[in-house]
Amino acid sequence: MTRKEMVAVLAREGAPEALQEHVKAVADRALRIADAAARDRRAVDRDLLESAAIFHDLGLLKRRGAPVTIPEYGERAAGLTSDDVAHGILGYQAAVALGIERKTARGALTHLFGPDNAACAALGIAPAEEEAIATGLEERIVGYADLLTWVGMLGRNPWREGEDAILFGFHPYAGYFWKRATGNPLPADHIWVTRVLEIDRELRRYARPEDFGMR
After folding, report:
1. Hey, is 81 helix, strand or coil?
2. Domain spans of the chain?
3. pTM of this prediction?
4. What would the pLDDT profile of 37-78 be if each residue is shown by its tens digit?
5. 3-212 under CATH 1.10.3210, yes or no
6. Measured between alpha carbons, how far is 23 from 44 in angstroms, rounded to an integer?
7. Half-sphere exposure of 22 (CA within 13 A, CB side)
8. Burial level of 117, CB count in 10 A (0-12/13-18/19+)?
9. Is the peptide bond before 67 cis (omega within 30 degrees of 0)?
10. What secondary structure letter does DSSP report for 130?
11. Across the strands, what pairs with 81?
């Protein structure tokens, strides 16, 4: 499918204009990261990358939870729901049901870099049939481009603040759902947290702050 056709699928599934623009922006940013990685002799399937990026947030349309507010984010992150942490899994399942290739659907499954099956058990959510761990480079780039977009929306800048900005974009989010489900804080050394930081260390060299509205 062309990008226009993929976005039309999202529109038919009920994606508002804002979400359509978001996934197109993430796709563009992911492709720029891929260009830089290619110059470093890292092979990237650009067609897979683009399609995975376009469908990565399909699960947002499948949430049924009540609205929630993460205190650290406030109204900057309006629109979150009580089942938001499962939207990668929901998106993967919805994409497969639509006949989208599994390798593309994994862009939805893995773009939050979890929760893996063990974390799903702690969170009380049903896992997908595959682990929600980004193994392929294309999956990691999609998730990272989305994360940097989110971090920028929150007003943080990892090129100025380092990993603190990345952690701010991830830990309050995952930690909110973790504490809600378990009653305990999400440990700073939890594999889900360290996985995000490892991907930042791998890929930030290929991203440019100006592509994410940062300086």
Report:
1. strand
2. 3-212
3. 0.97
4. 999 999 999 999 999 999 999 999 999 999 999 999 999 999
5. yes
6. 19
7. 19
8. middle
9. no
10. S
11. 67
